[in-house]
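On to our target:
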Amino acid sequence: MPEFLHSDRLRQLHDYYVRLTRQAKGYPSRLALDPSAVKTALPIVYLSNVTQVENQARFPFRLVGSQLVELFRQDSTGRYIRDMQLGGWEHHIRDAHLRVLESGAPVLTVKKMTLNNGREYFAEHLAMPMRLDDERIGLIFGGLEMVRIEQRVLRMDLEQIDWARDLHGVDVLERRELSPEEPAEAV
């Protein structure tokens, strides 16, 4: 796991995924997910189906954690990622999912979002492949958390941010494939 990973909850999700992968001897099944095993991470967790529409991979959200609903200022359950209005941020989430499909490995992305007023936010996004019924990747099990900011300050800021209107740019600082077999390390 990269040294710069700040999110304890993403580290917990990755460690849980490693255990599931070892038990399954491959991509874990959605049926293997036990929410009680990652209880503290549930607010930042999402599940996204992998579908094909006109030979293009599409990713409708199946489940979105409460903290992500608050962050995105919308409940995205049932919506396709590319249809969300997040000022371009949605494209970076989709790109991580495409990389998971291409590599078959978990992908960690660190992003910096800059608002029109110059304020910067950092997010860590972990996307991990899972299967539905057969051996193909049919589901993305992921988590996304804002880091390097106090949650109290973030909550106050989120009351005023409209990502579609206020986001000036998104920079991917790091994107890498992770081993599905190595536990995470602390910063």
Summary: The chain has a mean pLDDT of 86.
